[in-house]
Design a protein that fits this description.
The chain is an all-alpha fold. Helix content is 52%, strand content 0%.
């Protein structure tokens, strides 16, 4: 990874269209593989370079002029953008690390500012109030029938289910089947 210089140049200033055209003009001395329709080519370059930064664009130009692409031709729009992104990568990573560090510091400060007291008198009272409200609204506490303690199976309805056992007694006697072992399967 590239180490960043101690003095940070004006890295985060967006490049203007004039800056982009200046870079393209300064690379014009390289042999070109692009078509001669300059208006369409100019539009393609401006689209590819949308959202680029002044510092990285000129550093990318310098790297391309010094053979950074591995060939001596005028760069395509995507090559120029990739070279820009390559120059910006350390700056973006440093910015992301700083944002993550700030987020962690803020999280730690927030966590330390509000100590957690799991058994405080206030939390016990709040839980007791919630439980009393639950008990008050539970159907059994209002004279309604209590919820069944176990599942009651109607043998007539059970017999109507396809592949159902004939009686509840057979249901209780059924043994669960193990799934087949796919590792020891015969071939």
């Amino acid at each position: 990874m590239t180490t960043l210089p101690d003095h940070a140049p004006e890295v985060w200033r967006l490049a203007t269209d004039a800056d982009k055209l200046t870079v393209l003009a300064s690379l014009a001395g390289l042999p070109s593989r692009t078509p001669t329709d300059h208006d369409a080519t100019k539009i393609t370059y401006l689209i590819a370079l949308k959202g680029t930064y002044h510092y990285a664009l000129f550093r990318a130009r310098d790297r391309i002029a010094q053979g950074g692409l591995g060939h001596a031709y005028f760069p395509s729009p995507s090559e120029l953008r990739m070279e820009h992104d390559h120059v910006m990568r350390p700056w973006i990573e440093a910015r992301e690390k700083e944002a993550e560090r700030k987020r962690r510091v803020e999280w730690a400060e927030d966590r330390d500012a509000k100590p957690f007291e799991p058994n405080s008198a206030a939390s016990r009272a709040r839980v007791a109030a919630i439980y009393r409200e639950f008990c008050r609204t539970w159907p059994a506490s209002q004279g309604r029938a209590e919820a069944p303690r176990s599942v009651v199976l109607d043998p007539d309805k059970l017999a109507k289910i396809p592949d159902a056992p004939r009686s509840a007694r057979q249901l209780g006697e059924m043994q669960p089947q193990r799934p087949p072992d796919i590792n020891n399967r015969k071939r």
